[in-house]
Amino acid sequence: MTSATSAQLCRITVSGPSGRADLAVPVSTTVAALLPTLVRHVVREEPDEYGSWALQRLGEAPMDPDGTPETLDWLDGEQFHVVRAEDPLPELDFDDIADGMATAVNRQGNRWNETVNRRLFLGLTVLVFGAIGAVLFEGSSATISSVSAASLAAVLFTTAVLVARILRDRGIAAISGLAGCVFAGLAGLIGVEGVPFVLGPVGVLIGGIAMAGTASLLLVAQRILAPELPIVPFGVAAVAGLGAVMAMWLHLGVGLTPHQNATIVLTTFLMVTLFAPKLATRAARLRGPQLPRTADELQIDVEPEPAALVVEQTGHADRYLSVLAIGASLVFAVAFRFLIVEPGWVEYTVTGLLTALVLLRSREFLNIGQRIALVLAGTTGAVSFVLSMLAWFTPVWRGVGLVLLLGVALLLVLAALRPSHRRLLPIWAHLANVLETCAAVALVPFLLQVLGIFAWARGLAG
């Protein structure tokens, strides 16, 4: 027998109450989706409910309906049995305890495998790169550390391109390329600020330019030399680098304070997330048909598009959207740290409004990575807000704050316990839209206050 994972189809024999059938099934389809077809082939009487049937190996428990031939390790030529779910075939008894223990252990889903092994070593590689960065900051010579970081960036850049082009390994290419972007940024930072570790504005500006430039070169290489280079990691690095460049330009060139700087950067990237879906579809060259206004326009844009082309462009659009959403989330997480440098009612209000806007905006993103990134960024703002307020409270009010936080934790647990099949009422989506609009409108006067526009206007009036 050969493994089912080596091909797109797995050839099996299925036995049932009315006979047996030889079938070829897709390896990526769940058992629950396959059961209706299997039942039709081996059950002559009209089945009253497909869910009342189960698929079983001889001597084993019924298979997980959510499993697939690939995850359940089906083999070509293997035989399975379709049985009533309420009357499955009995499991075999073991006369050898060691054999029974081995069988039970192998059925568990937490066994070490090659996929986990690969992830472990890639994770350790990331830790080694982090240790190298720490060593560079602890060096005695800024010149040597800067040149070493730049050399590592060049080597890792080349490695990422070669791995993607020759080995077609996206994981190793992503880690190598991202490490190259980070080391390029460190080279610029150390070259300007020196060692030990100092986050000076000029150094951050040069480091951001270096990181964004390296990430942009990798994206160009993806288009020209190595199509297997992943777009999202390097796009996120480029967006994060641009965020650092923008923040330092506002600080050095315009002379804004850290709080003003963080407010402008957060608001700007919040606007980016607002227009991100349209920007992503435009970048992927996806354009929907225009709404017809006359009878003649009904004949425009009626030609069908090839399915493969539409699927490919949609994938590009989703990746571009991930770049903007995750990159903006990184900028949010850092900028929230500087919103409450000097706590005051304006700073707290701006932080609360921006946190609410980021969390409300996350509901519009259905991709798992995009939504999680935005939720984590908004949570960072909420945590900064709460910790800063609790630090100024008296012990009594701090205890009240802790009780309120326990209430928030209870609400989150109740949300997790909510049945997945129950949909939210439409009123909640409408309320979220209203709250987002109100928060955005309320933010405008506070932005003017933070930027000193009101003080400037009062100065004009004498």
Automatic annotation (TrEMBL):
Domain EccD-like transmembrane intervals: 118-460
GO cellular-component term (any): plasma membrane
Primary subcellular site in the record, as a coarse category: membrane
Pfam families cross-referenced by the UniProt entry: EccD, YukD
Subcellular location: Cell membrane
Keywords attached to this entry: Cell membrane, Membrane, Transmembrane, Transmembrane helix
InterPro entries: EccD_transm, T7SS_EccD, YukD-like
Superkingdom to which the source organism belongs: Bacteria
Transmembrane segments: 120-137, 143-164, 171-192, 198-219, 231-250, 262-280, 320-339, 345-360, 372-393, 399-417, 438-457
Membrane topology recorded in Swiss-Prot or TrEMBL: Multi-pass membrane protein
NCBIfam families referenced in this protein's UniProt entry, alphabetically: T7SS_EccD
Family to which this protein belongs: Belongs to the EccD/Snm4 family.
Descriptive protein name: Type VII secretion integral membrane protein EccD
Taxonomic lineage: Bacteria, Bacillati, Actinomycetota, Actinomycetes, Pseudonocardiales
